[in-house]
Design goal:
Helices cover 31% and strands 15% of the residues. With 100 residues, it is α+β, with helices and mostly antiparallel strands. One of its GO terms (biological process) is positive regulation of cell migration.
């Protein structure tokens, strides 16, 4: 009985501390897949790069990686997600936007 209580406690702690929008990988997955998207726009200044999920995933997603190395899934249809991705592509290509 003691083992069951400890196991259940550990499981509950893990469930409540696991962010809903995290990218998930495992040896049986076809790479990183998103099962939930971030509910709110994340601050642009914390994002350092992004990648798109594998085409074999059940739903497409964009995974933003933060300065603290967190992976946050976002809906590729959201305008802010497209803007962030485009901005990061431009920065990665080394092209400067010289608007004044």
């Amino acid at each position: 009985m003691k083992f069951f209580v400890v196991a259940l406690s550990i499981l509950m702690v893990m469930a409540f501390n696991f962010p809903e929008s995290s990218a998930i990988t495992s040896s049986t997955d076809p790479g990183t897949c998103c099962f939930n998207y971030a509910k709110n726009q994340i601050p642009r200044e914390i994002v350092i790069h992004f990648y798109e999920t594998n085409s074999h995933c059940p739903q497409q997603g964009v995974v933003f990686v933060t300065k603290r190395n967190r992976s946050i899934c976002a809906d590729p249809q959201d305008a802010w997600v497209q803007n962030y991705a485009n901005d990061l592509k431009v920065k990665a290509s080394g092209v400067q936007n010289n608007e004044s």
